[in-house]
Amino acid sequence: MTTPAVLLSVTPAAADTKPAAPSQTQTQNKQSKPSIKELEKAAADAQKAYDKAVKAKADAHVKLEETLAALKSTHPLAVAAKAAEQAAKDAATADQAVTDAKAAVDALPETATEEERTAAANALSEAEATAKTADAAKTAADTRSAEADEAVTDARVEAFRVYGVVSQALTDALAAKTAADQALAKAIKEAEEGQECEPELDLTADVTGLPSTLVAGTTTAFSIRVTNGSDRHMDEIIAYAGVHATDRSGLKDTGEFFRLQWSTASSPKWQNINKHNYIDAIGALKPGAHADVKLRLTVDKAAPAGNGVAFIAADFFNEDGSCGGAPGADMYEFDVKAAGAKPGKPADAKPVTTEKPGKNGTGLEPQGTTSSTPVKTGANGNLAATGSSSATPSIALAGGAAVALGAAAMFVVRRRKAGSDA
Asked: At residue 63, does pLDDT exceed 70?
């Protein structure tokens, strides 16, 4: 089993003080920050609105061209304008007829007969009557033409106004789409790069049933109870369970002989722990709620006698992007006996005290009972034990990596959740 690549120690500032509770403003900001799923929906909605606006502008452009063409030919306003033009021509023709009739009367010779004079007079009279009617028609047509010209201008302006509204809607839709795409891309980038997680000492992972002695060639069942002791809802809980072991010299890693599997109520089928040692099938936990994870650890019969340590922790991730967990891992030490050995009546594995921010002001918070052996990171980054822990050699070989699981381990899982291999 492998251990996560994490920081080897917490900073003095983090070790000396418990993180302050987030302010109301910070909490509101976290709650108001949209999730990636919400941003994906917003981007999809913006894309649909943009596509609809593109089609609307195309349709509006066709309508504009049709309206402008109709205003020149078949539109009722265009017909009225043409009728006015024709009436003006008819009136002019009638006036010319009157002029011609008068000229005909004036051109009659003195020798013209009474019949010829009567015919010329009648022609003039008819021409004047026609001219009067044509003039009245022209006056009415001129009025209609003026009204038509104004209406045509108004219709043309309205057609361009409608097209302008649709064009602006497309511009606005494009701006909204661009903003939504940028927000989604930013959120995805932040998720991929990882986000600083906060210490959460009230999220605990307690081990039950892991014995202090294991025998090669056997399988041991135990469990983890993850409890949300905080006053906030946690959207997703991920447990960490890793095992590290060495031979009696403490110099040879024997992790290849250990196989850890897990099972939960939502995923009852036994599954091998993934390469990151994370179990992400726990789901959400309300304040005060808990969930159990069943584990079974199989030690190959070829495993040599030695020592081992189980590293246990839990992290949380929320839809708003916030995350956290205890800035340290619970370490449970056990002995490993060769195949065929008698385990006797071993007690439960004891948790080892590790450095992490504590409530006692010392920077040292026990990861279980206070009777366990304290372990600190040495100047060279390896672990140096005080007392006589039987797991000291294996812990030393671990190089201190899992002791500081906490926030840095969350970075690992955030990157994994963002797209790396499980």
From this structure: yes
CA distance 410 to 199: 10
Q: How far apart are CA 31 and CA 374, in angstroms?
A: 39
User: 195 is written with which tokens?
Assistant: 């986000």
Give residue-wise pLDDT tens across range 174-217: 999 898 898 888 878 776 665 567 888 999 999 999 999 999 99
Closest C-alpha to 244, from 408, 355, 403, 395: 395
Q: Which structure tokens are listed for 225?
A: 């109870």
* CB half-sphere exposure, 173, CA atoms < 13 A: 20
β partners of residue 240: 278, 313
Alpha-carbon distance of 314 to 409, in angstroms, equals 10
Average pLDDT over residues 33-43: 85
CA 284 → CA 35, 261, 307, 316, distances in Å? 16, 21, 35, 9
Query: How confident is the model over 232-259, as pLDDT tens digits?
Result: 999 999 999 999 999 988 889 999 999 9
pTM assigned to the model: 0.47
> The tokens of 139 are what?
């006056």
Rounded to an integer, what distance in angstroms lies between the CA atom of residue 420 and that of residue 192? 9
Cα–Cα distance measured from residue 105 to residue 163, given in angstroms and rounded to the nearest whole number: 61
> What type of residue is 341?
A
